[in-house]
Design brief:
- Chains A, B: It comes from Mesorhizobium tamadayense.
- Chains A, B: InterPro entries: HTH_LacI, LacI/GalR-like_sensor, Lambda_DNA-bd_dom_sf, Peripla_BP_I.
- Chains A, B: GO terms for molecular function: DNA-binding transcription factor activity; transcription cis-regulatory region binding.
- Two copies of one chain form a homodimer.
- By secondary structure, chain A is an alpha/beta fold.
- Chain A folds into three domains: 18-61, 434 Repressor (Amino-terminal Domain); 70-171 and 308-336, Rossmann fold, CATH 3.40.50; 173-305, Rossmann fold (3-Layer(aba) Sandwich), CATH 3.40.50.
- Helices cover 40% and strands 15% of the residues of chain A.
- The first copy, chain A, has helices at 18-25, 29-37, 44-57, 63-70, 88-100, 115-127, 173-186, 202-217, 232-242, 261-273, 291-294, 308-323; strands at 75-80, 105-110, 132-136, 155-158, 167-171, 192-196, 226-227, 255-258, 283-287, 302-305, 331-335, 338-340.
- In chain A, the strands form two sheets. Chain A has a six-stranded parallel β-sheet with strand order 2-1-3-4-5-11, with helices on both faces. Chain A has a six-stranded mixed β-sheet with strand order 7-6-8-9-10-12, sandwiched between helices.
- The longest helix of chain A is centred in the middle third of the chain and has 16 residues, at 202-217.
- Chain A is elongated.
- Residues 1-12 of chain A have low confidence and may be disordered.
- At the A-B interface, helix 4, helix 5, strand 2 and helix 6 of A face helix 4, helix 5, strand 2 and helix 6 of B.
- Chain A binds a DNA duplex through helix 2 and helix 4.
DNA sequence: CTGAAAGCGCTTACAG
DNA sequence: CTGAAAGCGCTTACAG
């Protein structure tokens, strides 16, 4: 076989099979298979000749056939009900990132909030013999509209309520809130308010509790968190309450920790409109680190980042090890958040 | 077989095979297969008995095996370089929506802008014998970092530069721009400005040209479009230029058509800060209809929606028909936009 | 009307 | 060192 022969174009309309490679190399299919997989015993020369033939023919093994034999499809399903959301996206990127390196592809399924659609997708994935499933959502305190509790493949939950006995990954919201409040303290702020979303969200309470804890640990006054919507409008309304003249200027906060970035943006806009300076008079911190919002506020917003991509990676790796037969401790694992400092809090007093 | 027997739980750890169904029903695998697929001739009674057995055993055919035979995997690949982006998301939802109804699952692959990663993903998909590939991006004038021009499966391009001879779907940006400008005209606005993104984007010119065309058709003055960034900051800067005192109040626009929603938000904020009323004094229209932005502006923003989900659906259906062997006219197909009216333009003069 | 056989593309004991 | 055989789970001509 001349060594300057060109490799066949991948574009061949019908894929070349092992049988053809074997024929071209003058060996049996079994030998060809072994040569390419590094299995069996044979002369280095034979092995290399077969490999070279395969290369020239542009041979690529049919994974469907391999999967059938191996009982492993190198495929996983990713279930979400947050297609449009900003949460599942970075998460998915992380999942896919972790899995691609291991040669596994991911089926993306959006199940909306439709149990019938969810059921359909899960069955389709099972029929296609996925090795496992990752379920992601937009809230840790809500289930996807599907029962994944008794499947014959492992399931990992990320950012959504896990079934009992299953493994779930979430961000450490309490830790994230601590990061924010402690940052304020470090900057010398002492009258710290908290404006957050609806009481119906578990994270609202988790974050509020951490806020209280930190202040109490420092023997500072805790003002009751203001709960409302996850919106800019509510952020503006909250400013009207917090900075009312009735309260007296000295009663005004010098820092506001917000439950998400949209609230924070509303807060910053309303403060500016009242002539209150950010960060000179008041520091503001958001949650989510949604760049498109955080970078557009004036000044740019310091915000807690939940490290969703990392969370996705962990979820992917956890699933992989379950698929590989490694037992995993069931229960919820919390991953740390990080604070992304921009310009809405100012510099430390002596800084 | 007692009719009140419970169907086996789907959770059986090892899936039941056709062979087991056949054995339980006392027929051959061939007959069982035909019974379940509605093929072959047999008594209705036999067929029903086999079906009932399959149901009771919780039989689900192994798609890997079926695919191997049928040479069709009912699987497609979706390639994107816009994981975090708001464009590919609705688009993906549409694609997936169109395909799920046909029993096809989609592999999602984010190739970033990395040719090596792109190559890897394409090969993985091909190895898994996808029936076809949909390539989506964030710009019609940019290629994905992969060569998809000579694959052995059909490819459809959505919202990204198609290869010559391939089929591509994009939004009709000129039409969308017309929608916006004509809406202003209908409301009696006559001094319409256009603020858009960088000149390096093809859509910037397409939309600007349509803006000019409409005004010329109505013999109205065309002011040169202001090009800058796709950002709120640029929207604010543009207002400073458009509404400078030097120009004289009577030279101020009474409408601003913006190249995207972020620019529009900057424009609205800046106008409010200058005490210019929206929509009383100036109407504003954005592009993209990115709800999170459009609904948060004060007042809420009227915006051109590119119907990306519909575009995704069309892409999915186009691919399906190509996979089915139907020839498709190559070239770019443009899908209409629609105007989503909120409150940033006011009501018609006599309205 | 039903079943035995061949085969999709590959891998893996098992012989020689 | 290499090959023939059996088999993954299914489908589809082809006999009977």
């Amino acid at each position: 076989m001349p060594s300057d022969a060109e490799p066949a174009p991948v574009s061949a309309k019908t894929p070349v099979t092992l049988r053809e490679v074997a024929a071209a190399a003058g060996v049996s299919v079994a030998t060809a298979s072994k040569a390419l997989n590094g299995q069996g015993r044979m002369t280095a020369e034979t092995r290399e000749r077969i490999r070279e033939t395969a290369r020239q023919l542009g041979f690529r093994p049919n994974h469907l056939a391999q999967s059938l034999l191996r009982k492993r499809s190198f495929t996983v399903g990713l279930l979400t009900n947050d297609t449009y959301g900003r949460f599942s996206l970075p998460l998915m990127a992380g999942v896919s990132d972790a899995l691609v390196d291991n040669g596994v592809s991911v089926f993306l399924c959006n199940v909306e909030d439709d149990p019938r659609l969810g059921q359909m997708h899960v069955e389709a994935m099972l029929d296609k013999r996925v090795d496992g499933i990752i379920a992601t959502g937009k809230r840790i305190d809500r289930h996807l509209p599907v029962d994944l509790s008794n499947l014959r493949v492992p399931v990992v939950y990320a950012f959504t309520q896990p079934d009992p006995g299953a493994v779930g990954l979430v961000s450490d919201d309490a830790g994230g809130a601590r990061l924010a409040v402690e940052h304020f303290l470090r900057l010398g702020r002492r009258r710290i308010a908290h404006v957050s979303g609806p009481a119906s969200f578990a994270v609202v309470h988790t974050r509020a509790q951490a806020y209280r804890d930190v202040l109490e640990e420092h023997s500072l006054p805790v003002s009751e968190p203001l709960l409302g919507q996850w919106s800019e409008g509510w952020g503006r309304d909250a400013v009207a309450k917090l900075f009312s003249n009735g309260r007296g200027r000295e009663g005004w906060p010098d820092a506001v920790f917000c439950g998400n970035d949209q609230i924070a943006r509303g807060v910053i806009d309303a403060l500016r409109e009242r002539g209150i300076g950010v960060p000179e008079d008041v520091g503001v911190i958001g949650f989510d680190n949604w760049e498109i919002v955080a970078e557009a506020t004036r000044p740019p917003l310091t915000s807690v980042d939940m490290n969703l991509a990392a969370l996705g990676r962990e979820a992917g790796l956890a699933l992989l090890s379950l698929v590989g037969g490694q037992p995993a401790a069931p229960g919820i694992r919390k991953l740390p958040c990080r604070l992304v400092v921009r310009q809405s809090c100012g510099r430390p007093p002596g800084g």
